[in-house]
Amino acid sequence: MGENSVFDAIVAGDDVFKYYADGEWKVSNSGKSVPVVNPTTRKIQFLVQACTQEEVNKVMESAKAAQKSWAKTPLWKRAELLHKAAAILKDHKKPIADCLVKEIAKPAKDAASEVVRSGDLVSYCAEEGVRVLGEGKFLVSDSFPGNERTKYCLTSKIPLGVVLAIPPFNYPVNLAVSKIAPALIAGNSIVLKPPTQGAVSALHMVHCFHLAGFPKGVISCVTGKGSEIGDFLTMHPGVNCISFTGGDTGIAISKKAGMIPLQMELGGKDACIILEDADLDLAASSIVKGGFSYSGQRCTAVKVVLVMESVADTLVKKVNEKLAKLTVGPPENDCDITPVVTESSANFIEDLVMDAKKKGATFCQEYKREGNLIWPLLLDNVKQDMRIAWEEPFGPVLPVIRISNAEEGIHHCNASNFGLQGCVFTKDINKAILISDAMETGTVQINSAPARGPDHFPFQGVKDSGIGSQGVTNSINMMTKIKSTVINLPAPSYAMG
Ligand SMILES: NC(=O)C1=CN([C@@H]2O[C@H](COP(=O)(O)OP(=O)(O)OC[C@H]3O[C@@H](n4cnc5c(N)ncnc54)[C@H](OP(=O)(O)O)[C@@H]3O)[C@@H](O)[C@H]2O)C=CC1
Ligand SMILES: O=C(O)[C@H](O)COP(=O)(O)O
């Protein structure tokens, strides 16, 4: 690890990164490791432990035991530890961002922002937790027909137990802490299963929590391929809640998981509706930022543009001018467009592009690919029979569908099996509200591209895009349940009565 000696503890002598259990960094008994392939070089960059089912069982046992005493730790102390972890995380922005660059080809500046955003999220969560969890309800019985004032009900929010967190590759640090911090402030323990691409960045982040001094067992991190240990984890009887972000895997998990609360943030096909009166410069820059930042590998990326025919030529021209200015290359150089995460993702994107070509879409740029690197591509005149009209490429390729009225745009958006976010560009706020109300998505942005943040805003999808709602406050609430204590009086008692 060289200069980053604080992280030496997390890697074994054979350069395989350890997993974290019982407050210690450990080597798996499996004797096996899982490779993390650098998307840019397409060579193995890191190795992580392939944890066994027996090790998962032990992690669950210690998480369960640790949670009991963690829940008895005063709320202000839990918050204090989270603030400490946030500070340590931000202090180690550079080595963690370097891992993100190598593991998931995130442009260098965005990688650093992900770490800072994560530290801020942890601190905000600590602040919000002491407020949200510090309050309960007091109810009296005589508000319900037939009752005298003989019962006082006190409610408070109590932890669920062990929360299983499974984030995706595109934000392995940020979408991990967005689950870890609310779980911990609410008095739960957490078992993290990071994405394989991104696992080493996540292990570095977990070490920051270790350095902050969290009690052993309160946080654990097991590594291994989701396809191998995923089912064992999600169906484990020791798990009391699952918070998952990713693709269709989430739908499969929701069918297999037991009777426990689920928070699922899955895919999206976020539509961008452009009306005739839209500010086309604003729309074009939002489309480029929304559709192509991190090479389109965001669930909230603009994934289909639905533009009124009368302004379509002008909009497409403006978008193309901006696309021509994007830099394409390695994440180390902080290029705008960097290699997509795996070769199979690149192949999938290419299949969508070839399908559109075969069916007659207009290519605004020549299709170009080298390894996992795909040049930004706008496909105009996309029709309903093309796969790209409906499927999410999770890459730097964006379809444009020309529409003749707003209803057509709304109809296309609502015909999708996804419903994460959408956006509408118009100067007419009344139309914007009507369209927003008609769009079947968890969020609609007016005159801006879809986005999850700021991280305290509610964030949710409908249909195949998810279950429940995220955002700091919603996540804290979701990771608790209500406990009532009812005081029964011998006779009706009215205050001051
Ligand atoms: N709505 C949202 O907020 C987001 C949605 N996404 C969606 O996710 C997809 C791409 O992300 P990607 O990371 O590849 O998604 P995946 O669903 O493939 O993986 C997400 C996580 O699930 C794990 N996993 C895989 N199989 C299982 C299993 N059987 N049981 C439990 N966990 C499992 C993965 O581990 P491993 O890496 O080891 O396989 C990873 O940690 C896109 O479709 C995108 O739309 C992505 C980001 C955010
Ligand atoms: O998972 C995702 O892709 C994110 O939740 C999107 O977050 P962003 O809008 O901040 O990029």
Main structural class: alpha/beta
Query: What is the CATH class of the largest domain?
Result: Alpha Beta
Query: CATH homologous superfamily name of the largest domain?
Result: Aldehyde Dehydrogenase, Chain A, domain 1
Number of strands: 23
The largest sheet is: 7 strands, mixed
Task: Specify the CATH architecture of the largest domain.
Answer: 3-Layer(aba) Sandwich
Please bin the fraction of helical residues: 25-40%
Rg over CA atoms: 24 Å
How does the overall form come out from the CA principal axes? globular
Stated plainly, the CATH topology of the largest domain is called: Aldehyde Dehydrogenase, Chain A, domain 1
Oligomeric state of the chains in view: single chain
Spatial sequence of strands, sheet with the most strands:
15-18-19-14-13-20-21
pLDDT averaged residue by residue: 97
Question: Could you say which small molecules are bound to this protein?
Answer: NADPH dihydro-nicotinamide-adenine-dinucleotide phosphate, 3-phosphoglyceric acid
Report strand %: 15-25%
Low-confidence region ranges: none
Q: What is the helix tally?
A: 14
Q: End-to-end distance, in Å? A: 72 Å
The number of distinct structural domains comes to: 2
